[in-house]
TrEMBL record:
<feature type="compositionally biased region" description="Polar residues">
    <location>
        <begin position="11"/>
        <end position="22"/>
    </location>
</feature>
<feature type="domain" description="Flagellin N-terminal">
    <location>
        <begin position="14"/>
        <end position="137"/>
    </location>
</feature>
<keyword id="KW-0966">Cell projection</keyword>
<dbReference type="InterPro" id="IPR001029">
    <property type="entry name" value="Flagellin_N"/>
</dbReference>
<dbReference type="InterPro" id="IPR001492">
    <property type="entry name" value="Flagellin"/>
</dbReference>
<dbReference type="GO" id="GO:0005198">
    <property type="term" value="F:structural molecule activity"/>
</dbReference>
<feature type="region of interest" description="Disordered">
    <location>
        <begin position="1"/>
        <end position="22"/>
    </location>
</feature>
<keyword id="KW-0969">Cilium</keyword>
<keyword id="KW-0282">Flagellum</keyword>
<dbReference type="GO" id="GO:0009288">
    <property type="term" value="C:bacterial-type flagellum"/>
</dbReference>
<dbReference type="Pfam" id="PF00669">
    <property type="entry name" value="Flagellin_N"/>
</dbReference>
<protein>
    <recommendedName>
        <fullName>Flagellin</fullName>
    </recommendedName>
</protein>
Amino acid sequence: MRVHSNEHIAFSSNRATRNNTNISKSLDRLSTGLKAGKGEQNASGIAIGEKMRAQIRGLSQAQHNMNDGLSALETMNEGMNNISGLTDRMRELAVLASTDTMTDEDREIAQEELNQLVEAIDETARNLEFNTRAILGETIPLVIQIGSNSNQKIEINLIEVTAKKLKLKDDGEQDQISTREKANSFITRLDEATAIIAKHMTEIGSKMQAIESHMANAAMYESSLTRALSELEDSVISKEMMDFVQMDIRQQGDQLLIKQVNNNMHDLLKLF
């Protein structure tokens, strides 16, 4: 009969304890489907996975940013459509006041309506906001972060479309169509305002298309990264499973050895 020393028993017992701890950690990692913890093994894979995960979250947020940017542009477009409708009515009044079949009293009534339309344009420019920004009453651009890395951005140029900026009203002016001559001249000013409005609306449409394109690219990149991360984590899990099997085999061997030592000691004691 071979009798193992206390050193053999202590070594096997300590190794069994370590295996128990490692097996417990491995089970935790496998149960989550990820290589959790401090990345004791496959540290490079863990680092790559964390970077990819950060990129994915950044891309997701960037898409939210671009959605907000699109909402701002849609709001601007609605405001510009409203102002365009107001200038269309102004043109009707100016054309009406340009004919001599209109009396001065008729022109006065038309002028009163035009004054209200001018004020409506200014109210739209002052009061139309997106998250507190007067998007038709200031010119400081909105900067939209469109990617997960620095300097990946696009600017939305805000516009000021007050009646004065559209050249539809000078300071204190309230007689644009009070005479036939003035009404006829005001039609030319309306032509200029219409051109300005059309230019702004074209720019808004182009910017919307650009952001939609960036959104599609970001969504595609996020999807690709998500698939790559899944494949990386699957490979990490496969390695974890192999390590778990090896640790389990060692654990069973240590337990068998300890059991054999205990049985040998028990048989030895029977001899006395």
